[in-house]
């Protein structure tokens, strides 16, 4: 599982599935004609959507307020971390197979919960991609790092830069985005399976070795993460030779007014750099490139040799889009921002890195004046480049030398929106960034093909098919 940490409590008042019979189908069966022809003229009869539960609405409010509000996180080690309702502790669970019921069940909480610092409560948790490390953010924007201590569900604190642990005391310090760098070599050299082919009734596939090109800590086995605050501060938190976590930061933009405060931020790999996308209260989408000069030095302590790093951050401004919104509705608000990386080269997929903003709308219960239904829209921008062309008038001038080649500039190209008739609460990239998993308030998970133009839903292939490219199709 790839960090599907946006999972929330399912909405028990979910809508009927598409293949379930509706009231209209029953009328047609009884009377032999469509319900809208039963002397009612041409006026259509629509069924009102079931109201959303209070926990789902509260969860949606959290997502629309900030990009760092995960209360339930899954680790690739099999551990499940959960912030308690009062935010004062983090408990750990695991899934157990019940052979009698032939299903998985959630274990009881482990006996080693994590307690919040005095006077604070936890507001966000996020496992590293590999899984042994956990970052927890408290109500004062303090960041705490915990590492697995010999057993799943047992974490111990590690030493972190005191300024990072202390956090701040104003809205300017609110965290709006966090990203763990992949751990080298475990998350850089990744095996993968090719598509499955059916020959003479037998399915065959091959496992090959791949490499995810990207940015990771200069020293193998050391962890690092980025986080972004509402005041446009980008900070790198990294392990050094003594395993203590140190930090370095840089300002992205000058903070002019409260409208330029960030609400969401997302980071993802783009070749040998990183791409950062931010969204502010004025609905402006900005993109940046991030590169790291680790400045490694070899040091000695007695008979020991180790590498120490002193990283420096470099930011490049890529592009900006003012007033972003869905193409077909203006009543929704952004609830999720993600950088969907392009697949690795060995996948042979031409998809560009894409910025995806999930917009959601949900009517408030007991407010009949709101005439819209619950829905989500995935707005997309691909990161591309274009070469500026000189005006045709320059061609009439006498040329005394070669015409200089104009450098390509990055641009954001808007793609068609992807609608979803449910409340999307999370988005994750799976299987070498070729599949997207959308978690919804009704407890369902929808798999979509990132390689298709409109991110089509992946369906199970017919029985006569001889090719399967992903697990959801099998």
Automatic annotation (TrEMBL):
Its main location: nucleus. Keywords: Activator, Nucleus, Transcription, Transcription regulation. GO terms for biological process: positive regulation of DNA-templated transcription. The keyword Nucleus applies. It is found in: Nucleus. GO terms for cellular component: mediator complex. The keyword Magnesium does not apply. It comes from the Eukaryota. Pfam families: Med16_N (PF11635). Residues 1-24 are annotated as: Disordered. Residues 175-453 form the Mediator complex subunit Med16 N-terminal domain. Belongs to the Mediator complex subunit 16 family. Component of the Mediator complex, a coactivator involved in the regulated transcription of nearly all RNA polymerase II-dependent genes. Mediator functions as a bridge to convey information from gene-specific regulatory proteins to the basal RNA polymerase II transcription machinery. Mediator is recruited to promoters by direct interactions with regulatory proteins and serves as a scaffold for the assembly of a functional preinitiation complex with RNA polymerase II and the general transcription factors. Component of the Mediator complex. This is Mediator of RNA polymerase II transcription subunit 16. It comes from Hortaea werneckii. The gene is MED16.
């Amino acid at each position: 599982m790839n960090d599907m940490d946006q999972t929330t409590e399912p909405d028990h008042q979910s809508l009927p599935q598409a293949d379930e019979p509706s009231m209209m189908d029953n009328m047609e069966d009884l009377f032999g004609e469509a319900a809208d022809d039963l002397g009612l003229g041409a006026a259509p009869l629509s069924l009102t959507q079931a109201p959303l539960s209070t926990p789902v609405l509260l969860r949606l409010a959290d997502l629309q307020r900030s990009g760092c509000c995960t209360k339930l996180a899954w680790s690739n080690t099999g551990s499940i971390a959960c912030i308690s309702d009062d935010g004062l502790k983090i408990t750990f669970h695991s899934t157990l197979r019940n052979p009698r019921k032939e299903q998985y069940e959630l274990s009881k909480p482990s006996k080693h919960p994590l307690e919040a610092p005095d006077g604070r409560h936890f507001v966000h948790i996020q496992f590293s991609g590999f899984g042994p490390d956990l970052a927890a953010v408290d109500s004062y924007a303090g960041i705490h790092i915990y590492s697995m201590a010999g057993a799943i569900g047992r974490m111990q604190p590690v030493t972190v830069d005191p300024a990072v642990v202390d956090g701040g005391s104003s809205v300017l310090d609110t965290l709006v985005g966090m990203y763990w760098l992949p751990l080298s070599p475990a998350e850089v050299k990744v095996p993968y399976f090719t598509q499955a082919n059916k020959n003479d009734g037998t399915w065959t596939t091959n496992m090959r070795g791949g490499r995810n090109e990207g940015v990771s800590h200069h020293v193998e086995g050391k962890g690092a993460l980025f986080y972004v605050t509402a005041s446009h501060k980008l900070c790198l938190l990294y392990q050094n030779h003594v395993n203590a976590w140190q930090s370095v930061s840089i300002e992205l933009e000058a903070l002019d007014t409260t409208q330029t405060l960030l609400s969401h931020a997302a980071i993802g790999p783009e070749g040998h750099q990183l791409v950062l996308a931010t969204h502010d209260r004025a609905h402006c989408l900005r993109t940046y490139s991030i590169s790291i000069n680790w400045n490694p030095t070899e040091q000695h302590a007695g008979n020991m040799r180790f590498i120490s790093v002193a990283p420096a951050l470099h930011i490049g401004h890529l592009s900006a889009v003012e007033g972003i919104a869905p193409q077909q509705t203006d009543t929704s608000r952004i609830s999720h921002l993600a950088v969907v990386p392009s697949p690795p080269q060995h996948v042979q997929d031409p998809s560009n890195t894409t910025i995806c903003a999930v917009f959601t709308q949900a009517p408030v219960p007991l407010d009949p004046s709101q005439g819209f239904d619950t829905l989500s829209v995935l707005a997309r921008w691909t990161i591309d480049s274009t070469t500026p062309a000189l005006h045709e008038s320059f061609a009439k001038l006498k040329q005394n030398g070669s015409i200089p080649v104009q450098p390509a500039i990055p641009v954001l190209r808007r793609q068609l929106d992807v609608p979803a008739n449910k409340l999307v609460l999370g988005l994750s990239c799976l299987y070498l960034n070729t599949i997207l998993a959308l978690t919804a308030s009704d407890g369902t998970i929808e798999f979509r093909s990132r390689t298709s133009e409109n991110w089509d839903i992946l369906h199970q292939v017919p029985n006569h098919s001889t090719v399967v490219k992903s697990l959801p199709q099998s």
